[in-house]
């Protein structure tokens, strides 16, 4: 916390041997002091409109440059050969124009080291990737070709600008996209044609810069020299970090544009030439480059990856208890040798009525899940669910969180588990409050909506619902049928509408 603004990297310190589990996908940012709030309010009125107007001007002019530069080119031609002649001049001019955009936004880049040429390093690896603002490095490098998700091509204005760099697009929904992307990277990196350098964010997703997560090997398959580039934002207030759990992009843009200035350091490290062993093993190549960059940045490396982001997104979508911390829970369970043990599933199946409704302290927790009490990871696993430091946890939340993020669990599977966990009767009969708890923490329903659904399912006013009765109800409701993947029921049959 600095400058009256609460903003930070999320991690949990552990006692004992001093180890800790980082969560690189969480960022917190709040205005705390009256001074910061007043200053932001004043600059919102005085500075923000000016910056937005000038930025819009540069974006429009840049889009015009890109439109002219791409005039007459088909998408196929854009992928087959690099731009040359006057088109290449326009591309570089566009990059200079975009530099002005970042300067207008208040960014003050400091360049450390020297950028290599394409002959020296056909590929550039930039990390850590933490923000939309990382584009500042791209424009200061003259507009290299980036490897990016295909969806950005459809962005208004910016899609045209990105297309002008002749990017390599990754379509994550296409099962063949990964191989196609790797093939295109290899072809360009080893081509004799004068392609721009390929700029890749090897982490594959945004983090909070607390560590370097696993590098994807795509950029390292060509086995060519790579220039590592580190990017930092040494500011008192971190208004640029955009993670899976944190401020929205609009809040970040607002706070960034209302800062007097934002510092940014772009450090070009020496070109890394792979050994024969690294050329044969892209994962080893990626791991060693990451180690070099982590040392330059002064941060640790972790084995988090993009799949952890997907898991976290799934947990947030379902509104699982402590969703933002479940990536840490996965790592802690791995350290404790619990992965694949099915301990939690066995506890759920063996559960008796009201077994876990009371608070559970640490010794009982450790005994129940079978972990040592003198291990820092055990204590940290417990603390993850004891955010208020009460000394006890709701063990049902732990069970649901662990089981809910398993890859092979469907939404219906998770709901079934929640219904069993929160069933106080022991006979599969959930009261209104129990059903609300189960559905709020798996279907992300509000309590009010959940109680309304309960009333609709409990047509006979029995005072309870079952998992099966809810499923039968859900099959007839579009809001649930689509979520659970049920086949759509005909809207009317024999002249009667479906419920």
TrEMBL record:
Where is the chain membrane-spanning? 52-73
InterPro entries membership:
EF-hand-dom_pair, EF_hand_dom, LPCAT1-like, Plipid/glycerol_acylTrfase
Look up keyword Acyltransferase and say if it applies: yes
| Localization, UniProt | Membrane
Q: Which GO terms describe its molecular function?
A: calcium ion binding; lysophosphatidic acid acyltransferase activity; O-acyltransferase activity
Lineage top rank: taxon: Eukaryota
Q: Which GO terms describe its cellular component?
A: endoplasmic reticulum; membrane
Keyword line: Acyltransferase, Lipid biosynthesis, Lipid metabolism, Membrane, Phospholipid biosynthesis, Phospholipid metabolism, Transferase, Transmembrane, Transmembrane helix
Q: Name one GO biological process term.
A: phospholipid biosynthetic process
Question: What pathway does the UniProt record associate with this protein?
Answer: Lipid metabolism; phospholipid metabolism; Phospholipid metabolism
Q: Chief location of this protein?
A: membrane
EF-hand domain: which residues? 445-480
To which protein family does this belong?
Belongs to the 1-acyl-sn-glycerol-3-phosphate acyltransferase family.
Protein name per UniProt? EF-hand domain-containing protein
The taxonomy runs: Eukaryota, Metazoa, Ecdysozoa, Arthropoda, Hexapoda
